[in-house]
Amino acid sequence: MATAEKIKTAREYIFKWEGVDRKGNKIKGQSPGPSDNFIKQQLRKQGISPTIVRKQSSLLGPRKKAVKAGDIAIFLRQMATMMSAGVPLVQSLEIVGRGHENPSVGELIMGIKTHIESGNSFSAGLAQFPLYFDDLVVNLVDAGEKSGTLETLLDKIATYKEKTEAIKKKVKKALTYPTAVIIVAFIVTGILLYFVVPQFQDLFQGFGADLPAFTLMVIGLSEFVQDKWWLMALIIGGLGYGFHEAKRRSQNFRRFLDRVLLKAPIVGAILYKSAIARYARTLSTMFAAGVPLVEALDPVAKAAGNIVFEEAINTMRDQVATGQQLNLTMETSGMFPNMATQMVAIGEESGALDAMCAKVADFYEEEVDNLVDSLSSLLEPLIMSVLGVLVGGLVVAMYLPIFKLGQAI
Fold first, then answer.
1. Who has the most CB within 10 Å: 86, 196, 265, 327?
2. Which residue in 283, 50, 71 sits closest to 162, CA to CA?
């Protein structure tokens, strides 16, 4: 799914590019990035095979912020508000672009404005920046322009972006907090083993007595860390790099990883319900915009954020294309809860599929919110216990000989 990329380099440039999309059509545009290889990589993620990528000019100075997904959601909301108030498109872009607090976003908006002033449509202007505006947004804006309901669709797109970004932040919060604490715990343990334990080891050598087995084990671990820290760093770095490359290059590995994550305790429930929420929210937005169901399911699959769901939705799309009802394909896939399936069935029967999908999305977004809060409350004592065992265990191991010496005296 194409979203605004967080670019952590100090300097970026504008690159003009030409390429071929999935349908074999020639396409060209311009995108910001630190290098031509970065642009090529991002274009390939969008299904575009680049043929020419050329650097044009410096875009971001050293102090400028990158364009984030949240910035795009705010931009779309501002455009929806401005156009609903009757402000013309070009003037709306001018006002929003000039007044944005992030210069990078301002330059992006002014780039869209320049493209529109050359005689192109709003959707065509957005299409020039595929790293920030995916096919779903571009197609919905194009549908709004053709039907004369651009203001309404911009409002729906802005709501969709805000909701999906909120879900992403909740999932990220659920995964980042325990990961960060565990990493810090291992770093602290490593520091203790490398710097603190050797000091006690020198002290123990003058005791002239046998040390407890637990203390000997910790000292042995400390000696290993001191002698082989480079090997441990190499192994950890190699595993991290191998994991990243396998995830990037192997669809089978991504499928295996996504299946494992969906079955993980607590976190699996959060990822599962967030995928249901994204599916329902995207489908509601697409269907409300008048996009036919079969066509809507393609971007819906990409927005699910999980390859297991993506493959299931693609299979559902093929089944819907043969005339089956959506709720039956959802039930057959085995990926959707009964509540979601029944709500979609009611929506199909009543002709209000978009409204029912929106209700499903609201329900599961609230479920994700509650699960994240529960996870945070559950993890706090668990993490404190892990830290206590790691750090406390090292302290006890170092003081056991001292306690024994005190008893002998």
1. 327
2. 71
pLDDT digits (tens, 9 = 90+) for 129-167: 888 888 888 888 888 888 888 888 888 888 888 888 888
| C-alpha to C-alpha distance for 191 and 62, rounded to whole angstroms | 34
- Torsion angle, alpha carbons of 375, 380, 385, 388, to 10: 150
Contact between 205 and 401 under an 8 Å Cβ cutoff? The reply is no
Enumerate residues 6+ apart whose C-beta is below 8 A from 267.
174, 175, 261, 375
Q: Which helix (H) or strand (E) holds 137?
A: helix 135-147
Tens of pLDDT along 207-262?
666 778 888 888 888 888 888 888 888 998 899 889 888 888 888 888 899 899 89
Amino acid at 326: L
What's the burial of 252, exposed, middle or buried (CB within 10 Å: 0-12/13-18/19+)? exposed
Give the whole-angstrom CA distance, residue 79 versus residue 32: 22
